[in-house]
Amino acid sequence: MDGCLDLSGPSLFKAGMPRTLSSSNTVTPESLSPPPAQPPDGEQAGQPLLEGAPSSASLDTLIQQLVPTADYYPEKAYIFTFLLSSRLFIEPHELLARVCHLCIEQQQLDKPVLDKAQVRKFGPKLLQLLSEWTETFPRDFQEESAMGHLTDVVGRIAPCDEAYRKRMHQLLQALHQKLAALGRGPDGLLGSDSPIAYRTKPPASIHRELLGICSDPYTLAQQLTHVELERLRHIGPEEFVQAFVNKDSLASTKPCFGDKPSNLEAYVKWFNRLCYLVATEICMPAKKKQRAQVIEFFIDVARECFNIGNFNSLMAIISGMNMSPVSRLRKTWAKVKTAKFFILEHQMDPTGNFCNYRTALRGAAHRSLTAHSSCEKIVIPFFSLLIKDIYFLNEGCANRLPNGHVNFEKFLELAKQVGEFITWKQVECPFEQDPSIIHYLHTAPIFSEDGLYLASYESESPENQTEKERWKALRSSILGKT
Fold this sequence. Notes:
Layout: H1 59-66, H2 76-85, H3 92-106, H4 116-136, H5 144-157, H6 162-184, H7 210-213, H8 217-232, H9 238-242, H10 262-283, H11 288-308, H12 311-321, H13 324-327, H14 330-333, H15 339-347, H16 351-369, H17 383-396, H18 408-425, H19 435-443, H20 449-459, H21 465-478
């Protein structure tokens, strides 16, 4: 995944001038350093984290526990946890086939004459399970075979009660709508992500500076929140597992999924685009007073993002201002009132595994749970750090124990993290959308790293021999000058 963040360094921010950040760094699991191992609050290692759920069990046992009967229905937390993690061991359509087969076998749904009284006790539970599955993991039903298993098992109980047929019709209708919405994906939300090279006379479109479109920091923070929530909605919980999926030695000979987690990548690309957009907007003005004004504007936008609970945009803005072409503009920064900026940097300081940010995130999460207004419900986490946490949870614990059992305790913790994210992404944005600002955020041209450096050098002359040589090389390669 292309990006401009590196979370592996000892410190992102320092006092004084902004920390320099190279856009050649990338957000990838390999570039991250693990968080300190901490057991969940109030839980003992080796103890079940969900009442009735084992710490470990065979895959067959876990599948059996997912299957409802006339007198049993699995806990909702178990359903989510197992459906989320099971794809590490078995493909979803194969799991659905196993579940449907067990239902048919246990309830004797293949008999010519059914026990209608028994089916009426079992039927609502089966439909509830299928409803939860299709609602939370609709992509599991993209294959035709999955739809076949779904209609087959419900078709066997439908003669016992007409309500089952109607419920099935509603379920399929909702599923098709979800799949259609997911099929549209987030790709259409962005214009070209490719940065452009710097030109001495930028095209007219570049002259449409952001402050000319939106001069109110709070309004821009609201519109950034719109973009964040819109993009988050496309990310399915299963993508967090599939992003780090490895072949299971006890399962099939091939990984369960070969496709890239495109929605995760698209979201990281949005983060990186926002970083570059911030840097481009700062480097474009010819006069340092104007550049300082843009910097102070983005500081205010970042502060409003923090207040809203939009930590991902906050971090992107800070990262953009910390890119080397921006941080080297010493004369510009000398005109900036940086006190608010340093406070924001402190909040997102990576020291202690981002302890300040994590405290702020917990505060926003608590506010969301006790919200008195829709605005207070918003929690948009720093996404790359969320991926980092999930990655190291996955890497730090084995999927299977030495006896071959599935390490279900690990997946309960994974489900807790992913489940919290799913709750946050379902919040409806309460702010009125401004199409012109949204369009600008998606389509405004952004400079490449070289373009940013060249703009920076032309704004404030190189200060040392290294910068002078780089400036000369850039002018030669980009502008065709000697």
